[in-house]
Write a structure and sequence with these properties.
Strand content: under 5%
Radius of gyration: 27 Å
Shape: rod-shaped
Distance between the termini: 93 Å
Number of strands: 0
């Protein structure tokens, strides 16, 4: 009976370790998606700022 209990505890620990590994992987994926979204937003804002600067230069050139 003792060996069965040890085996059961071992299996439970393996399941817990697997769950931790999966959670860690999901957190890593979420962080990667968040970083990608932030980089995309930064590129979009940069393009908008460049466009606004071009429009301002054109407006000044027309005066």
């Amino acid at each position: 009976m003792s060996s069965l209990k040890n085996w059961s505890n071992g299996m439970e620990l393996m399941h817990e370790e697997l769950a931790r590994a999966q959670m860690s992987a999901r957190l890593g994926e979420a962080q990667n998606r968040r970083l990608a979204r932030e980089a995309s937003l930064a590129r979009r804002m940069s393009r908008r700022a460049e466009q606004a600067a071009r429009q301002a230069r054109l407006a000044l050139a027309r005066l």
